[in-house]
Fold these 4 entries.
Entry 1:
Amino acid sequence: MPINMRRSMTRPGFMTRVWNSSRSRGLVAIGGFAALYVIWGRGWQLNWGSRVSEQHLLLPGDDLIDRADLTATRAIDIRSSPASVWPWIAQIGQGRGGMYSYDALENLIGCDMHSADRIVPAWQSIAVGDAVRLAPEVSLTVTALEQGRALVLSGGVPVGSLPPPYDFTWSFVIQDAPNGWARLLVRERYGYKRAWACLLVEPTEIMSFIMSQRMLRGIRDRAEASL
């Protein structure tokens, strides 16, 4: 190494400049990834599988939050009749049919989730006011129900000793598709009650996408296999 270079490296402030330069590049990279997510990834994951017309469609449960701060509408085609899809929706929940998603991931955080591969008659009874558990100590409430067509859950997850900083609805809607098949739409809506709620919800929605797309495929596969 040339003597002049060694001297430069030992001068006061040299390592600080290197650190600042590396940190700046890191911040630029993080900012770039964040920008790409906002521009492309966010809209894609919030609306996975859904059509533009479906994203603007008024669904059961939408009236419970007047002005949602975040809405996710995800959908899937199911080559089975709406009547064969509904029983899988009716029995969702921890301690019942599960969520048909990645049980292993959910159980890492203590959800004790076990997704069923069969329709259980004892789990088919569901009514407005019932609790649908996401984990042993966490549940949502059935707020609206259209037998065979729509299930709307509402509530939220407390943050420590604080109540949920948002209003939340989760709607499962089965629509008719060509050839007698079904189209399943799942919509999440958040209405923020605290300014910092977005800092909690936005990262959560990334995980929600991962779990929701698997849930939709899980319901599809089970309904189609039951033909």
Entry 2:
Amino acid sequence: MKVVILAGGLGTRISEESHLRPKPMIDIGGMPILWHIMKSYSAQGFNEFIICLGYKQHVIKEFFANYYLHRSDVTFDFTGHNEMVIHNNVAEPWVVTLVDTGLNTMTGGRVKRIQNYVGNKPFMLTYGDGVCDINIKKLVKFHKAKGKIATITAIQPGGRFGALDIDEKNDTIRKFVEKRKEDGGWVNGGYMVLEPKIFDYIEGDTTVFEKGPLESIAREGQLVAYKYDGFWQCMDTLRDKLYLDELIETKKAPWKVWCD
């Protein structure tokens, strides 16, 4: 199953870093948060990625174009041979498709633009600015068992996000509600599993995925919540970045399920 990652936004709330590079390319522990997200999927057997680009897309393209070189020990011989010798192989088992989905395209529009790369198969979708220690295989199994168009991982981070109204009997999401003070409400944490029918609900570049499409299928009873109370953390602010850096530095990063 392919993994689609939204990585095209401006990241204005962490402008201290994002004025130089896309938000998903901001380092935590010396590597971009996008890399951490991909490593967590890959460690669980999901290695095909489609990354939706926009703002400063060239930074992400150059990162992957030079990935093998940057992650290896290299000898440059300038003594007449003009050779480059790579001493170790740190290549990932990844297939990465980078798609220019437009500078000002909304989240739904970005998803619509990668339809041809996904094909007529279920796929996963998440945001390029949050890490989680979720078991992806359990999430996919839950999605298949529910038989709905979309599954959202619902988390409880606090009161600064829009909340989900979830039917406790069958886990269907009835509607999205406005942001409110912390009250234990469940919110959209990304890490979604989607059926290809979701594309029918996206009109074009101006469609906000979390509004039109998800709200429409919620009204139809086709949106379910996978409630997850484990670790989840987005990187919206510099404070969030420093917190994630600290977790890595102290070897307490729950999402790091791979071996170095």
Entry 3:
Amino acid sequence: MPETIANKPAVVLLSGGLDSATTLALARAQGFACHALSLDYGQRHNAELAAAHRIAQAANVEHKVVLIGMNAIGGSALTDAAIAVPDHATDGIPVTYVPARNTVFLSLALGWAEVLGAWDIFIGVNAVDYSGYPDCRPGYIAAFQRLAQLATKGGVEGGEFHIHTPLIELSKADIIRTGTRLGVDYADTVSCYAADRDGRACGVCDACRLRAAGFKAAGIPDPTRYR
């Protein structure tokens, strides 16, 4: 483990899903002292927050949940009960896209990083097996990292923030294989966009389909609890 990394503080965005749990495991494996951040943004699948708590507790890392209530502006099937979560694949950017979500999430992570004296932020975005969200793409991440330098006291005073996206080029199967190797218990995670209060999955939304296909391709039993 490089001495430059060992015990360096890092903020890890932890939704409670499969990807973020794997991202946390990777950050810890690299030697970072992780601080997990979850956002209660009015998501209909808020069972993922309980999952995030379980994951952080199992990893023995600090965990904060910040209430931001993006359901106040709506515009997404994840934050507006009047918009149904699709049960089939759609073309283009789907209605499960939450307007500016990752920009808001990363901004809060950046703020906490400044408070902690951390220069490293981890987010589990993926540009291979994903739903076409614009804020999961490499160009967006590179732009936000440039913004971080201009928008913060730490950045303008010479510090350098790094936005880590260790999953961005991995298939869902490769993510699952990686997490399994690192000891992630995927039974603790919730990925479903329409999960019930107990975290049980619908099995038909885009997130469920990608997850199930990933476990099948990885040749690893799927521990997901379905309704």
Entry 4:
Amino acid sequence: MKIAVIGANGQLGNDVVAAFTAKGDTVMPLTHEDIEVSDVDSVSRALRDARPDVIVNTSAMHHVENCEKEPQKALAINALGPRNLASVAEDLGATLMHVSTDYVFDGLKNSPYVEEDAANPLNAYGISKLAGELFARRTTKKHFVIRSSGLYGKTPCRAKGGLNFIELMLKLAKERGEVKVVDNEFVGPTATDELARQICALSRSDAYGLYHATSEGSCSWYEFAREIFAATGTTVKLIVAGPNEFPAKVPRPKYSVLENKALKSHGLNIFRTWQEELHNYLGQRVKSPSVQVLS
């Protein structure tokens, strides 16, 4: 198949390119220099001649605080962008695979969210991503909208300062010898290479629709940090942060664990537990210490 990957140089996009390439597909990596998703003419120019079979959209305005400051820009990229991609995909007869987020939920359920649960985003980022989902789902029939959570990978996410949570914890432990982490926010930490393989597997299906796609199980950020330090043999004093020690500038869901109900119902779920994914990431890190750090 011919695959167009939007946001190909990002944390997830890089691994999506690798996953499809490993399957023998012809991959067309597209970055912001090649395509502006908020401009339908740019989308059309970038995709019409190439005529991909599958369009994977990993691009987004991720920075939550910046989305709150610039909601119109967030809507242009995160909502109108998927609409434009879906419109062109429909015209080309291509399948659109659009990556969304756990932030479409308010975190009040306190048990894993399934695809049928009502969305209720708390901030501009979540609102814009939910709007993008709806545009994608209503604009083209051949769509996969894929929500994930707690992403980390070897490629830096520039919107989040370049360091994923694992690298940040190890950096702070080395520099300070003491780390404080909240234990009242819960997530399903998900490796981008694992999500990329799931996207690749899903692309072989025609079971279009909305999917949750995260590692199995869940933990607090404190529990995640504890496992990171234990797995790496890092000597550090790990402390539970006080309830108001790290006040959020923007409201965020405190519980954003997703259940891969739809993937499992179609026999398509390939995810392992979050612990297995973490240990695999750390193993790759030791064998090939190529994790990039932004200066």
